[in-house]
Design a protein that fits this description.
By secondary structure, this protein is of the alpha+beta class. The protein folds into two domains: 152 residues, D-amino Acid Aminotransferase, Chain A, domain 1 (2-Layer Sandwich); 166 residues, D-amino Acid Aminotransferase, subunit A, domain 2 (D-amino Acid Aminotransferase, Chain A, domain 2, Alpha-Beta Barrel), CATH 3.20.10. It contains seven helices and 18 strands. The structure holds pyridoxal-5'-phosphate and 2-OXO-4-methylpentanoic acid. Pyridoxal-5'-phosphate binds next to α6 and β15.
Amino acid sequence: MDPEKIDFYNLGFNYIETKTMFVSDYKDGKWDEGRLEPFGSFEISPAAGILNYGQGIFEGMKALKAKTDVIVLFRPEENAKRLTESAKRILIPPYDEDKFVKAVKQVVKENKAYIPPYDSGGALYIRPIMIGNGPVLGVAPVEEYKLIIFTVPVGPYFPEGFQGINLEISKKYTRAAPGGTGYAKTCCNYAGTMKPAKETKQKGFAQVIYLDAVNKEYIDEVGTANFFAMINGKLATPKSTGTILPGITRKSVIEIALEKLNLTVEERDISYKELFEDSCTETFCTGTAAVITPISSVQIDDKKRTFGSGEPGEITTKLYEILTGIQRLEIEDEFGWVVKV
Ligand code: PLP
Ligand code: COI
């Protein structure tokens, strides 16, 4: 799409075609050097591993414009590491992490005209995918893979933005089980969350909070983001033991809470019942797409808990200001997280 025709000030989280993508192929036991190509379709065998058995993974990152129009990435080496971990879980040959970060920078530069202006609050979402495109019949890894990195200009993931969202705790659906692929960013993990998301949206909720698959008691995460709660004055978040995606925003929020807000942080099992007690004062969720989104209320069956007056809580707001301040070069980046393109 012609960047001149994009209304950068009213973007949602929707697909818009941009100019250039990066493509690298794995054949004969190695990844090639990769190249920039015009964004476009490619042929794929009906017997491809990704089409038949879902052998594919992806990442999500953002390039932002700072006030000075400098273009920045947030901890891209963490996405590279997670891509490697996801790849290992479903037997995709990992991609060199330094080359990955270099390729991300190249794609961002090539699509510079699509990065929303600083004052729009938007970002250029970067979507790396790694798929098994070689043919296969039995359930087994294929011999050929593709890494593609494309970009899309985006606004807020939840239309509510920083207003706060209402979430439904699901006792019906789970997202990941111990020993499964919950910690990896595999395509299949998301296919199973579409029906629960559709059903909960029909009831007026923004998303589902998933509970652990064994006890249906402890919070795992929100469909596309990690979960946090202020309980007894401490910041609590579900521990990362294989069923939740180890979010880069999650990791950053924990570090900010410890270093900048001097909070006690607990990575532990959180029963959903704790959210209905007065000791739980704020909840929010985190992710590249979701940034820090305050949770106004949670509901399970007919039982609803609204946090305060439904406004973003004090700690949630502070964490949001610090995180986005660092990301847009408005607050000194003591952690060394921001990478200029
Ligand atoms: N959990 C799930 C299921 C996600 O899809 C995401 C988004 O990538 C996250 C959590 C948050 O991860 P991150 O902060 O690295 O974007
Ligand atoms: C992200 O936050 O980058 C995600 O991948 C979440 C979702 C759009 C799948």
